[in-house]
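Q: Joint fold for the lines below.
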Amino acid sequence: MALTIGVDVGGTKVAAGVVDDRGEILEQVRRPTPSTNPKETAEVIAEVVNLLKGKFEDVKAVGLGSAGFVDETRSTVLFAPNLAWRDEPIKQKVEEQVGLPVVVENDANATAWGEARFGAGRGEDFIVLIALGTGIGCGIIINGELYRGRFGIGAEAGHYRVVPDGRRCGCGNRGCWEQYASGNALVHEARDLARVSPALAGRLLELGDGSPEGISGPEVTQAAREGDSAALECFRTIAQWTGQGLADMAAILDPGAFIIGGGLSDAGDLLLDPVRTAFAEALTGRGHRPQADIRIAELGSNAGVVGAADLARI
Amino acid sequence: MALTIGVDVGGTKVAAGVVDDRGEILEQVRRPTPSTNPKETAEVIAEVVNLLKGKFEDVKAVGLGSAGFVDETRSTVLFAPNLAWRDEPIKQKVEEQVGLPVVVENDANATAWGEARFGAGRGEDFIVLIALGTGIGCGIIINGELYRGRFGIGAEAGHYRVVPDGRRCGCGNRGCWEQYASGNALVHEARDLARVSPALAGRLLELGDGSPEGISGPEVTQAAREGDSAALECFRTIAQWTGQGLADMAAILDPGAFIIGGGLSDAGDLLLDPVRTAFAEALTGRGHRPQADIRIAELGSNAGVVGAADLARI
Amino acid sequence: MALTIGVDVGGTKVAAGVVDDRGEILEQVRRPTPSTNPKETAEVIAEVVNLLKGKFEDVKAVGLGSAGFVDETRSTVLFAPNLAWRDEPIKQKVEEQVGLPVVVENDANATAWGEARFGAGRGEDFIVLIALGTGIGCGIIINGELYRGRFGIGAEAGHYRVVPDGRRCGCGNRGCWEQYASGNALVHEARDLARVSPALAGRLLELGDGSPEGISGPEVTQAAREGDSAALECFRTIAQWTGQGLADMAAILDPGAFIIGGGLSDAGDLLLDPVRTAFAEALTGRGHRPQADIRIAELGSNAGVVGAADLARI
Amino acid sequence: MALTIGVDVGGTKVAAGVVDDRGEILEQVRRPTPSTNPKETAEVIAEVVNLLKGKFEDVKAVGLGSAGFVDETRSTVLFAPNLAWRDEPIKQKVEEQVGLPVVVENDANATAWGEARFGAGRGEDFIVLIALGTGIGCGIIINGELYRGRFGIGAEAGHYRVVPDGRRCGCGNRGCWEQYASGNALVHEARDLARVSPALAGRLLELGDGSPEGISGPEVTQAAREGDSAALECFRTIAQWTGQGLADMAAILDPGAFIIGGGLSDAGDLLLDPVRTAFAEALTGRGHRPQADIRIAELGSNAGVVGAADLARI
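A: Joint structure:
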């Protein structure tokens, strides 16, 4: 049985695992990301790969899922703000230290591939995955294959513009989708509400230890589960923007399924139900076309490791 | 040499041509569309096909480019408001009358295919075509193949939302891209200007026989070519929305080239230059990624016939 | 009993009347406005005044309500696009020809004064009148006196901005209130609807002789009275913007009453009911403050003549 | 020489002073506001008044400037969220404890009156003051008199809507002016910038001790004074919204002067220059009308005490 190693390189942690051809993780390991030092990051990656490789005989290749833009040859990370990487030849660097072939992929693409092969996307060949976390990660599966675009930088849907002159985005533009539909957007919404209407946001403030800044995603989800009207309003707002965005994606891509992952997807039906409603109300040509299914991701935070490993296999 | 017939079925006319495998039209014919009667439209299509078929021995197949949503089996038009078609089994109807295999395709898809194979898209495998006319027609080429989506309804980019609560669109939504970036949007802009600032729009009104309603696309283009500042402002506004939209498409699809067709593309550099500028200023990650080329279409109004014919061949 | 003459000078007609101190019009006369020739306009005004003056012995003064900006000495029209007047010394010109003292006032101010003294504003000292017609005319009564501002140009509320980068306005800006809440805005809304959704707007098109351009205000009002859902939607949209604007005025001015005049006010409760609802939902501090009353004007198209005449008296 | 006492009651402090008829403060005193307890707040007010009264023989009256809505009889605070007052009969309560006549006024109104009589508004009878701090305080002087509106709640201009569906406001609405043009808005802008573009906002973060939350108004002003481009961009954004808002006020009120006060006005020309530019570009009818002057307030944080004291005199 051929094994591969998948590595998920994010701004805060490096997660790696040995994965078999059914998508099962046989062993895994994590390290904090030394994010301000590009050289050290490559070394940490090599370290975890060598550690895992030492435990299994038949590891054949390594798949690396990285934040940022990956070039079309799947070798170099062109730009990854959170990792301090610019034109980083990470494939070569890691190959030299681990003695295995390495393929590099955008992390959301790896996540999408993991869900497509072994998670919520099984049996569907046209998938758009969006991971709602700090921002929006996006991966697209077309005809059963990962879509990378002409230059390797496709599927950055978090940065299409949804509001002219809207909220400032880290990419330098204003009004990007991820500023309105993401885990951070939910927290932004809840803190705003707590700041201007403390009375209305009483339960949120209580869970947040009294200050707007103390409120983060899990608090909003918990309050919403308890039926708190302020938290539910925050969810409705984010779901509205999410559903609208999925309808926009459907106008362009007409996929068979959308998969919602990322930290925000832990909210489950609390998120899914209003997203489906908003999508159905916003889809162009509704009533005259089949509609994509909208599902919650199944692999959780492991999807990136599993997907990266599997991409190294093919 | 194998020949095929391409038919372009629009709201006002049916155009058909015999096309060879180099994309050359050997002979063509046009008829007005009997658009309120679905049955008659099929008969007109069959009539022009039979007429052309009678003149060439080796016609092997027919490609039909039609406005509206085409189902995934490329047989039935699900919904085409301008043709009065709902669930119209047009493949079967035409095949019965012409005795040749027929494939049906969305008209903008056929246009995109024509340009990709024989026009401005030659040599590029990842293309987004937008045809700026009454609305926005859109076709997408991925890996050298026409992209149709899971249900056959992909590439309706004219209906992704660019302005929340924006201008009303014929699709029933508000704020769709085609309400801001299309030939009609240009005319809308010019008439608005003439209505509220007749002094400023003097040349436009002159060309439009004195009334705002008299101004149409060719008048705006002519005035802009003369250097009229009001007309140039209208072009800049439409180019801004077009370039922004292409940047949004690039965020999602990362194509190698955009091709701009449709009636508005007759304006050439008058449109192309400000679109390129707007695109370059709006692209997410600009400076850290290769940029798609933006080109004017080359086949003009024949692209749909040529593309449909070629799609029948493969 | 002292009489005065009121003259209402608009872009299309000059209306004049002899008015007594109870606001009764004893006799009136109308002439078309020779709007492209400033000199002739003054002559037409003098002609109608002299005509009326000849019939009544004790006419003491003339009040002139004019479109445009009137200077602080109430003598000169600084700017009136529809009358081709720039720095027109109309007080002096008319006085020379009629031998009576003349005061000049903005037409909406005159209308507001008429309603305040003899119409819907009786008994209220803090009033904002808005006249919904081609645009929004506005007049403000504070402490029982007409408010003119420091330079005579106050109460142009139709040109505060309600939508950033919104609809183009004749004043040269974008997003002015009158582009969203006026008789013209209602017609704009109805034509737009008819253009993009002819099926939905069937009754409007029928009344408009088949084309969107054939639909004007009275048609929309008639269809709405019949219960036509498309026309009612147009009214709701305009009422929403009107009520929001009144709430904005209330935040700044806190009047005791709003009076809605202009051609659109003929719709009566069809307009008034949804305006009141929108106002109540948009008012800042609602629930903690007394609310202004919202009323339909009572004097109709005579308010300008009556108000101008009365302003000449004081 | 008659003296009066002015008291400025804010959410965090109670400031009081003995003021003569030339607006000079002879002696002053401050106390923290016991803001959660309405009863105690009245007692603290009485305490500082009695303290000052004991030092001067001829104090004749007390003027109280309070946050919130003050009723038309100038006796009761209807609603002041930051003071926990609802229908608080503060005039009567304080009069009972100090034995002097008391008049109550909205704090921004008192500030406007102070500036009008003794500060930047001397010699001008039509003034709009806006105090840019936590929100926007507003006071209006018409014909040399303080404007209070029909019900005493006029001049709450911070709550007219500038962006449909815009930023949430503490008043319960969305898109209020003060969410875009105020000291808090400046800080909001700077923190947002630091959050999404830390590299660009390096100097701001440095001054803010490394975290976006550490940045407050004085840091942004300091960085802007040093020429930091990120801070200057934040100022330009706020100045744009401020100038637009003043243009909107001018459309409605046509004042002779605008006075900008509040904490943000400490930035002086850094704020004033771009506000003037934005105003001049946004004013309706620009070029055909005299323009209001825009000035920085002169009395600083004393304006409220001075104004309240003077209002007690008349």
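Q: Anything notable?
A: The interface with chain D takes residues 167-170, 172, 192-193, 195-197, 213 of chain A (CB under 8 Å). The longest strand of chain A covers residues 25-32.
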